[in-house]
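Batch manifest, entry 17 of 40.
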Amino acid sequence: MEPQELAENAEKAKESGERTIGLTMAILAVLLAVSTLLSHRAHTEEVLLETRATDQWNYYQAKNIRSHVYDADAEIASLFAEKGAQAAADFRVKSEQQKKDSEEIQAEAEKLGREVDTASHKARFYDGSELFLEVAIVLSSISLLAKSRLYWRVSFLFSLAGVASGLWGLLAAH
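Output type: structure tokens
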């Protein structure tokens, strides 16, 4: 082979390597976009569930307070003669109903709290996925700038960690 042919072949190989790294970066960017979307949705779900859980706890507290008010009303009503005894009994019935309702509300609030924990757990995995994929893209960019495939190869480790973390987030829900 002539020196000019060798130089042309070397240039083609260099361009091919740059295209491969560029394609890798494009794939990583798509994976990062998916991971970011999943992360944002998981965080939104977490906030919405947290709000619902807080609302349930507030409702529980309101029922509990009402129950205590009815207990106090029953005590006061029992101080009066016959009319007071009937009113006291009515207040006690209302108090018991409030207590029963509050137990159901408490169970729902606790269930929502567990759902918040699950959503938070998923979101952390997606956040990790984003981080690893972003580092992989940066390493691929450095590989192009430094004209060294070493950084590109190292980026595969971060890519693998990012994909694994994202998949773990998907599986965490089930």
